Amino acid sequence: MLELKQVQKTFNPNTINERRALKGIDLTLQEGDFVTVIGGNGAGKSTMLNAIAGVWPIDQGQILVDGIDITKLAQHKRAQYLGRVFQDPMMGTAADMELEENLALAKRRGQFRGLKWGITAKEREEYRELLKILDLGLENRLKAKVGLLSGGQRQALTLLMATLQKPKVLLLDEHTAALDPKTASKVLEISDRIIAENRLTALMVTHNMRDAIHYGNRLIMMNEGRIILDISGEEKKKLTVEHLLEQFTKASGSEFATDRALLS
Description:
By secondary structure, the protein is α/β, with parallel strands linked by helices. 35% of the residues lie in helices and 23% in strands. The protein contains 10 helices and 10 strands. The strands form 2 sheets. Strands 6-7-8-3-9-10 form a 6-stranded mixed β-sheet, with helices on both faces. Helix 3 packs parallel to helix 5. It is globular and about 60 Å long. The model has no long low-confidence stretch (mean pLDDT 87).
């Protein structure tokens, strides 16, 4: 469902600030894979997601989604294949619009809209049922402005909006990092349930080692622009934080030194 072939990206080339962020990434996700991505600061995690999303062009390599080469597609044209939830809860929704209006925008994405904007009673009932899935009481607040919601509620709504059209690949870029632990746990549970129920292919960047181990069927660890570990199946099920740190040290030749991940 997703293929990265020798993807390379260098920022500020031929300058004193040159940084090779991705050094020939090869990665294949099968349909239904839920892959968690862990790594230290500057490992290339978010750079890889941004490359897939088309935030910037890659220097070399190829990106395919469901066999379609999207390497040179503009970011807005990739939106028909990808769903994305950002780290900042404010980025995925329109704060000044109502919940039902935000859902309507997501539901009608890519469709011809014409001059008629009104939300029908049938659509409203559909949105109410969808919001019930979140178990946050939002089904009774369809007319509320999204800007009045908490960060966790907005992130859960963004997740729902990103998956309404059943994207080929769902990108979760540290989407719980800005939330308190209890809310983050709730949003992760909702993410896991939506991915499983819709059989979505998902790539989740996280700074939390325990979350990376607990969620998904596969874990990859990045370091200095490369994938150095790829763990799945029974090996992932038996994985512990201590074992993962040992694996990192063996693969990279150095100790994992990101307090944010170790303390989470």
